Amino acid sequence: ERIDAAVRHQFKALIYRLPDEIELKRYRDYMQRAISEAKDVKEGMAVCLKAIALMPEAVYRMELGLGRKDEHGRRRRSGSEMAFAISVALTDDPPTAGLWSASREGRLRSREGVRAQVGRAPAAPTAPPTP
Question: Are 88 and 61 contacting, i.e. CB atoms less than 8 angstroms apart?
Fold first, then answer.
């Protein structure tokens, strides 16, 4: 339970999302192995948590198109990719709770859904006029 909590915390802190079940199992198993091999809980945990920090998704903003394929084989952005794209484009910040909710609920799968979320974004501050 504590290992799962540590893995989830690291994902939320660095990737701004929770791990899926496959990722959670992979890092749980890895952390248990690392702790066993190091014979030290703190050192084993550190090894695993560093591995999460080095995931490409933690280092780079991913826009690979992890969503469904269309009839031409092209992939749409996944909900989390779309949430990041909208948020970073408009605010340079990670997605808000509202944008994450829209992503989880599938409201970013259509143009209309994306348009609605973009319309909800706060207006970007404008630079003061130059003298």
Answer: yes
